[in-house]
Model the fold of this input.
Amino acid sequence: MKHSPSNSTDVRAPSRLRLASWLVAVLIGSLLACAALYVLKHRSPRPPSVATDGLDPAVARLIEGAMRDMRATPRSGDAWGRLGSVLMHYDFMPEARFCFDQAEKFSPGNPRWPYLHALLVLNRNPADATPLLRRAVASCGDRYDMPRLQLAQWLAEHGELAEAEQHFQTLLRLTPNHPPALLGLARLRRAQGRLEECRSFVQRCLGDPHTAKAAHALLAQVQQALGVAAAAEVAARQAASLPADAPWPDPFWTEASAFRVGRKALLQDASVMLDQDQFDPALQILATVTRDYPDDDEAWYLTGWALNRAQRAAEAERALREHLRRSPQSPKGHAQLAVSLLNQKRYAEAVDVLEAALKLKPTWHELHFNLGYACAQLGRDADAIGHLRDALALDPNHVPTYTALAELLLRRGDSTEARRLLRQALELQPSNARARALLQSLPTGE
Done:
């Protein structure tokens, strides 16, 4: 039987077709993989889930608006940064951190996002703060001083003194006599035991409102350590008399603070102003709170407290009665209402309020002291002495209690105990003029 010779071309053809198909498949697979990687790399991140139910309505509206803006431009660093700046104020820490990470990813040269991120984690995740601050400083260079100042202060507080000094010195090079940098270097020298250098630095920032109180307090410590007791006491008195230091300008935080809205933010702003004795602007803010949140007891209390501080006792009384109508078991409300009554010389009414307050908080020194004062004004010396003794037992370092009790004892002819109390007062506060004058008025030889 004859067989036809095989055709070699026909035998190889299927192999070539398989190879070509395989190459095409590999190419298509590679293209699909590249496309998938591209999509994954450039896919916009999903926004965090933020529940606004139960929030202050003003806060909820703000968050929802920031979320809409971010969804409209999901690859915008500014949109993510704004959302993070909103969330950081309302206890959405993980969500805010995610937003700041995205903001830095999409706007890597913008220093505000790592800086605000660092402020968010300073107290809760301190290990994360340092690299964030370093990135912020690297991004802003010499354009803004606050990230560098914050980093220097943070490093100094955590024992990184050499790097902290480098940043403080850089601030002084860029801005000669930079007050917070001078104060920072003074604190470093104090920690290093270089007291004369510390005093030299601190004396250069005593007059600036951003550092005056802290600088005088540090000067008092240094003068005491150097053995200059009189100068130390002068500096300590000046520190005590000065208002709280004003914050150093921080443009990034100022921008972020614009997203603080609602009752809580307003009360915080008012409290800061009250700490700085800025009564009129604080009272304007508190009036807004009592108007928009009329059932809020804290706003009425702060209003009364501020009016007492401003010597507007009748107005304070009205505000504090509103506070107590909403919070009748408030010891601090009763205490401040009593102060307003004392300032109006309505001593008998003040006694009733103070006795009610003591039932709520019997260990509060201030209540016993003010009750002693009110009783003394009513001629109830025995009751007054009893309350002042109670006050002294609760706070044996309160110099006015010693002098008030001594005066009452002198009025009753007990100069022996009065002398002892006045001497104790002067041991606690040698500069107390009232105690010294009373002691000098006593006959010698007793």
About this structure: The CA atoms of residues 95 and 324 lie 38 Å apart. The longest helix spans residues 8-42. Confidence is low (pLDDT under 50) at residues 1-11.
